[in-house]
Amino acid sequence: MERYVLEADKYIIEDAFGVSSDSEAMYQPNYNVMPGHTMPIILQEGDNRNLVKSIWGLKPKSQDEELVEIPQEDVLEDDLLAGFVKSGPCIIPASGFYKWKETVKDPLPFYLRVLTNEVAGFAGIYTEYEDDEGKPIHAFAVLTMKANALVEPLDDRMPVILQEKEYDVWLNGDGEKLLKKGFSGDMLLPEMSVFRVPELVNDPSNNSKELIQPIPKLRNYDGAEEDE
After folding, report:
1. Which residues in 77-92 are b (16+ Cβ under 10 Å) and which e?
2. Residue 2: exposure state from Cβ atoms within 10 A (0-12, 13-18, ≥19)
3. pTM of the model
4. pLDDT at residue 226 greater than cutoff 50
5. From the CB of residue 27, how many other CB atoms can be counted at a distance below 10 Å?
6. Rounded to whole angstroms, how far apart are CA atoms 61 and 20?
């Protein structure tokens, strides 16, 4: 997952995940979230779920590269990553995500979102460290899974989208059993939609609601021309 969107009213996010924050900046919409951006994530701290700011992209000490997304299969096969699922699980609030069809000559961007909720929860892991001034910094990565039938024409991967009943299981560090269930093909996925969006999203400096406005599809996924 290269980019995602978070656009939901404060009360919708708080109601969906059982969190609250006095920081209005925490709820600012971002229509072009990309690695390196600071976004809200949800953590379980004691008996409470908390909304905290976190940087998209973490780098475990044993890894040479920054992790932006992690296949759930790798988590099941890597003891270090499995440890993060137990010690540092998080939920990433998101309204939807972008995909590009890379096999065509001039890839067009598409936006995918869950139809049943205004905001969904992507499964993630996070780490915490201190900056030069001793202030805590959080960094996160998104877990991905094999794409469903809707996403597959665009890409073979998609974020792991948690169901509401799975939030507690994930945040309490028991997420490995959810990943095993998903890897076996039994994970239920929410109803989703996909539509073409303006190529404005290709420019990282663009960040407005216009990026997720549907526009007529000009060609099929395979690149064939279509009538508007």
Report:
1. eeeebbebbeebbbbb
2. middle
3. 0.89
4. no
5. 19
6. 32
**Position 36, amino acid:** G
Task: Please write the tens of the pLDDT for every residue from 104-138.
Answer: 666 789 999 999 889 999 999 999 887 778 888 89
Residue entry with tokens 């961007």: 109
Residues 139, 116: contact at Cβ < 8 Å?
A: no
Starting at the earlier edge strand, list the strands of the sheet with 96-100.
30-33, 4-6, 96-100, 109-114, 192-196
β pairing state of 48-56 and 136-146: parallel
Query: What would the pLDDT profile of 45-103 be if each residue is shown by its tens digit?
Result: 989 999 999 999 987 666 667 899 999 999 989 888 899 999 999 999 999 999 998 76
Tell me how far apart the alpha carbons of residues 50 and 152 are, in angstroms, rounded to a whole number.
34
Torsion 12-7-119-26 (CA) sign: negative
